[in-house]
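Teaching note: in complex prediction, the entire set of molecules is handled at once rather than each chain in isolation. The prompt given to students was simply: 'Predict the structure of this complex.' The entities are:
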Amino acid sequence: SQQGEEDPQALSIQEGENATMNCSYKTSINNLQWYRQNSGRGLVHLILIRSNEREKHSGRLRVTLDTSKKSSSLLITASRAADTASYFCATSWGSNDYKLSFGAGTTVTVRA
Amino acid sequence: GAVVSQHPSWVICKSGTSVKIECRSLDFQATTMFWYRQFPKQSLMLMATSNEGSKATYEQGVEKDKFLINHASLTLSTLTVTSAHPEDSSFYICSARGGRGYTFGSGTRLTVV
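The expected output is the structure of the full assembly:
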């Protein structure tokens, strides 16, 4: 299975602090995406990083990709209570690159 | 932006009955739609992939006859859980792939009693 592993499983931080979560995967990928899911809701796309990219920024989000280690990290800076959610990485690969394989997710709680 | 409407958002049904979940892309044409199942505090598991006008492709271990998928148009896909049982209770999420990537529905909480 290509399904990635994410760590930590859960993260609790104070508002204003940074949150970092990691994702590892098993085989070569075409791209990697990060999604956010609020409790009981659908997924919201955050950012996509291609296999030939190493770092990408979007607002308070910073994503890195290390293809040699088959891992990615998502950093949320200056966290807010509204960032409380579960975060998932998703990869696509090979000829089935239209299919996404999701990691186990990291649940982030931002305390006010 | 791209919007996918999924409904119902929640449904309770009796064991043995069938339930239909709809997934609509509102402002774009979805070449492919996906159906996922998510158990509490777990990841999304892909159930099947559907393309408009053709039969859905099911992932290994997913029963085709239990989870009927119809993709009648470029904007609508439906998932019917047939003869539902309590173990089918779960959160079902659809996703539509269009020109701007993947857009997810808000999910359907199915409870079978």
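Point out the following to students. The two ends of chain A are 38 Å apart (CA to CA). Chain A touches chain B through 20 residues (CB under 8 Å).
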